[in-house]
Amino acid sequence: MKNMSMNRREILRNATLLGGVAAFGAFSGITLALAAEEKTAQNAVKNLGWTIGPQIYSFNRFPFDVAIRKVKETGSTSFELYSGQQLSKERKVKVGPDLKDDDLKFFQDLIEETGCKPHAMGVCPADRRHFEFAAKIGISALNVEPAFNKIPEVNKLAEEFKMNVGLHNHPKPSIYWNPDTVLEQLKDSSKLIGACCDTGHWLRSGLDPLESVKKFKERIVSFHIKDLVKQDNNFRFVPLGKGDCKIAEILKEIAAQKIQCPFSIEYEAEWDNNVKPVTESVSFFRETAEKLIAQ
């Protein structure tokens, strides 16, 4: 599938050259073709058992009611929630378990209005309050970083709520930075508990993201998918597929393993104006999924 943003620029230019009614007809026809092409790519993601959308933390400079509209701008219909974002400019409460009924209704009305639904929440405390809140709003996966001695409690909550739980790897010195450590904690855990794979944090920790993914096999619950370019001792965010995290190869591996899970795009740069790189990332993900389905 061709680059969608470039196609649109070409369409606009060609429509202008055609002029008048002819331009309108050509524009309409090509627009319909593009819409069908995009739908095919979206279906490829769905057929692989995946969902793709931003981790709404990417838009944390804005209150939730603005941020969820930015999610929609990216062409996504799903996203990962993070607990603690201000609900709106007027409603200065934080999204999470403390939402009162009126604020919760405001939150749910925004989801219905935009058509953008949360597919996960994190990184958040692995306590009963967050499990209850996730269940209440229809989230099926929590991404967490509990202390090792809290894992038995997390097991019980996961089983009680029938909810997937991803152990997330922040970079060194996080206790979960090394995949081997995560695997050790998963040995005696419920099958509902697995890895929340953060591709960029693995790169920051000096690990190969693709080789890290391969270690987990069926024990992957979710992804914080990001792409970075390493420059000297620094890392720069780039849209998916343009960095050093081997995103296309990772998606091929996940498809081969037949893992079905949510993917949340994190773009933690250009904070006030990063809808475009997130949109590019969504497009790359869908295009890659379409290629994998065609193989």
Structure description:
- The protein is an alpha/beta fold and about 300 residues long.
- It has two domains: about 45 residues; about 250 residues, TIM Barrel (Alpha-Beta Barrel), CATH 3.20.20.150.
- The protein has eleven helices and ten strands.
- An eight-stranded parallel sheet has the order 1-10-7-6-5-4-3-2.
- Helix 5 links the parallel strand 3 and strand 4.
- Helix 3 runs parallel beside helix 4.
- The chain is globular, with a radius of gyration of 20 Å.
- The two termini are about 15 Å apart.
A few lines on this structure:
The protein is of the alpha/beta class and 295 residues long. The chain has 11 helices and 10 strands.
In one word, what is the shape?
globular
Q: Give the CATH superfamily of the largest domain.
A: Divalent-metal-dependent TIM barrel enzymes
At the fold tier of CATH, the topology name of the largest domain is TIM Barrel
- Please count the helical segments: 11
Structural class: alpha/beta
Number of domains: 2
Strand order of the largest sheet: 1-10-7-6-5-4-3-2
How is the main sheet built?
Answer: 8 strands, parallel
CATH level 1 name of the largest domain: Alpha Beta
**CATH architecture identity of the largest domain:** Alpha-Beta Barrel
Topology as a string of helices (H) and strands (E): HHEHEHEHEHEHEHHEEEHEH
Computed over alpha carbons, the radius of gyration is: 20 Å
Distance between the termini: 14 Å
